[in-house]
Amino acid sequence: MRSCRNISALVSQGMDKKLSLRERFAVRMHLMMCTRCRNFQSQSRFIRKAARRYVDALQSRLDNKS
Amino acid sequence: MTASLLLTEQTLAAQRPVLFRYALLQLRDSALADDAVQETLLAAWQSAAGFEGKAGLRTWLIGILKHKIADHWRRSAREAVAPDVDRADDGEAEEDDYFISSGHWNGGPKAWADPEAALKQQEFWAIYEVCQNNLPPKMANVFMLRELVGLDADEVCREAELSEANYWVIMHRARLRLRECLEIRWFNNTLQDKRHA
């Protein structure tokens, strides 16, 4: 069985590219049993969302200034 | 010169948002960023023949934009505050702090209470900024190119001169770090307030 170290790395990669069928299956199986890796996945998605909001806010803050 | 035929005003204009975000993060001033993008698009338009189509339009445009940004720093003699994105930092072995030798989490991600609500709170954004600024410079640069500017993974690799393998490692570490920082500084602290709110 793959470790959390390994699965979390795949979770990260999965955010930027399509994983192989084998990898996706391994991730899915692992996530069913592992709360922490599941948390890592949703938190990584949250961070992506936050980063976009952050840059939007930065942009409008700067727009208002000028 | 078939390449130049492909460079219509529309194709150039379509790249504007990405270029603007890129310039904005470097210059931190929307008027300056806008100027730099404007100059870039003009230069691209004038030297369409220089575009070989190989590296991808966006990569080529960012190359031009970087020159424009560098020109700006030279002109304004503010080089001291120019972001030093090239400084190398390896942070090797630091990932090991996040896992124990068996590969299990060392501590690891806890459940976060209502992250959506955090997005609406101004205090959260101050913390987010601190956490993002706490990333080592090179890691921050890669993270920002991907998540803030919105480049694709392979564009980030070209831009930051990274192998694909390195890219995965750096992005993963950036997420591990940011996650931990947000957990410690925000989600752990606000858990209590949330429940009573």
TrEMBL record, chain A:
InterPro entries: Znf_put. Pfam families: zf-HC2. Residues 4-38 form the Putative zinc-finger domain. It comes from the Bacteria. This is Putative zinc finger protein. It comes from Methylobacter tundripaludum.
From TrEMBL, chain B:
One of its GO terms (molecular function) is sigma factor activity. Residues 16-78 form the RNA polymerase sigma-70 region domain. Residues 133-178 form the RNA polymerase sigma factor 70 region 4 type domain. It holds the Pfam family Sigma70_r4_2. It comes from the Bacteria. Gene3D superfamilies: 1.10.1740.10, Winged helix-like DNA-binding domain superfamily/Winged helix DNA-binding domain. InterPro entries: RNA_pol_sigma-24-rel, RNA_pol_sigma-70-like, RNA_pol_sigma-70_dom, RNA_pol_sigma70_r2, RNA_pol_sigma70_r4_t2, RNA_pol_sigma_r2, RNA_pol_sigma_r3/r4-like, WH-like_DNA-bd_sf. One of its GO terms (biological process) is DNA-templated transcription initiation. Keywords: DNA-binding, Sigma factor, Transcription, Transcription regulation. Belongs to the sigma-70 factor family. ECF subfamily. This is RNA polymerase sigma-70 factor (ECF subfamily).
